[in-house]
Amino acid sequence: MIAFADASAVVKLYADEAHADEVHAIADLVVSALSRVEVPSALWRKHRLGELDNEHARLLVQDFEADWYGTDAEPRRFLVVAMTPAVLEAAARAVAIHGLRSGDAVQLATATAARSADPACATMLAYDAALRRAAAVEGFSVLGT
Predict the structure, then answer these.
(1) Residue by residue, what is the 3-state secondary structure of 25-51?
(2) Rounded CA separation 105/91 (Å)
(3) In angstroms, rounded to a whole number, what is the distance separating the alpha carbons of residues 52 and 139?
(4) Where would I find the H helices in 35-139?
(5) Torsions phi, psi of 28, nearest 5?
(6) Average pLDDT rounded to a whole number, residues 123-132
(7) What is the secondary structure of 7-28 as a DSSP string?
(8) Cα distance between residue 25 and residue 17, in whole Å
(9) Which DSSP letter does residue 139 get?
């Protein structure tokens, strides 16, 4: 199965969080270029909140970056969709239509662009309630709780 994963889903690949098994079960993950910033931000936030020590946070971010860029031994883990002007325009519309925060609107617009490019990418993994509702309204099959 191929699915679009927002940053809240991608974080579950690295941090010990509920429902991580749902994300690990998807073989092919499509992500927004915005996740390059959002995922490390979420991991370092866990450190600031005392959920991770500094070394653990650093290692999780390092693991994410190895998956993002690939290594000599492993290819990239994610198919990354760029934040093009068209994606940003769609995100601006999504803010008004769905009442989303800016990052979630970019995630939704990127997922929509990915689905347009490959109709098989019709499933979205998200763990934010507002984004899940908006994705369902936009016709995505939504996974996550």
Answers:
(1) CCCEEEEECCHHHHHHHHHHHHHHCCC
(2) 5
(3) 36
(4) 35-48, 54-69, 85-98, 102-117, 129-137
(5) -115, 115
(6) 96
(7) HHHHHTTTS--TTHHHHHT-SE
(8) 15
(9) T
Q: Which amino acid is at 70?
A: G
CB 138, CB 124: distance < 8 Å: no
In tens, the pLDDT along 8-53 reads 999 999 998 999 999 999 989 999 999 999 999 999 999 999 999 9
Q: What is the pLDDT of residues 60-98, one digit of tens each?
A: 999 999 999 999 999 999 999 999 999 999 999 999 999
Residue entry with tokens 């860029």: 69
Q: Which amino acid is at 25?
A: A
CA angle 12, 19, 29 (to 5 degrees): 50
List the domains of the chain with CATH numbers.
2-143 (3.40.50.1010)
